Amino acid sequence: MGKFLIEVPHPEDKLGCAKAIQVFLQSGSHYLTNAEWGCADNEHCGWMIVDASDKEEATCIVPPAYRSDARVVELRRFSMEFIEDTIQQHSD
After folding, report:
1. How confident is the model over 3-39, as pLDDT tens digits?
2. Could you give the C-alpha distances from 10 to 21, 45, 54, 70, 75, in angstroms and in order?
3. Contact present, 61 and 32 (Cβ < 8 Å)
4. Is 39 helix (H, G, I), strand (E, B) or coil?
5. Domain locations along the chain
6. Does CATH place domain 2-90 in 3.30.70?
7. pTM score over 0.85
8. Alpha helices in 1-92, H assignment, sequence order
9. CA–CA distance from 45 to each of 1, 9, 21, 36 (Å)?
């Protein structure tokens, strides 16, 4: 299982915001009803962090009307050991 950040833009006017948020809230999906929104700071996107088996599954969480504009980014945590090994392997 992977972790993904989903960013969903929507129209920048108040009606566009309200309609996008309404679609998410009415879905009943735990992920969608708990999305975070940046509209109050003039960032007209919703964000969610979800657990999914792959990027395709994460994308399918987004309502169809917003899916084509959604951006899905796989998230990973790194340990200091991993980073030190990587730097050592790629240093001259």
Report:
1. 999 999 999 999 999 999 999 999 989 999 999 999 9
2. 9, 6, 24, 9, 23
3. yes
4. helix
5. 2-90
6. yes
7. yes
8. 14-27, 30-33, 55-59, 64-67, 80-90
9. 25, 4, 10, 8
